[in-house]
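Q: Could you fold this chain for me?
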Amino acid sequence: MTTIEIAGTAPSTTRLRITPRGRRVLAGIAALPAVAALGFGILSGGGALATMDAPAPPGTFETVTVSAGESLWGIAEEVAPQADPRDVIDAIVRLNALESSNLAAGQRLSIPLEYVAGH
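A: Sure. Below is the predicted structure, expressed as structure tokens.
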């Protein structure tokens, strides 16, 4: 039996050889997204955590207890009839660090003294 060789064809068993330096470079490139994500998380300072703002000092607010069916708008009109309810609501939300305007009966809210009637 005779074998026929075709000129110009390369053997089909080529292997990729990576040097130790090449392996380090490849590992560094593969790890880059993880390092970038970790760095971003560290530099953002845990933004999902509660803020480190100091609490309001005692004596700068009064506390009210929410009754069933009360809303922030109603409380704002009740405690500061002379002020724009939107401003009062904004101050209450910031002081109490409320995530939404939903209130529960029995919930205690701090009201800034600047809006309390009689002060």
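A (continued): The longest strand covers residues 61-65.
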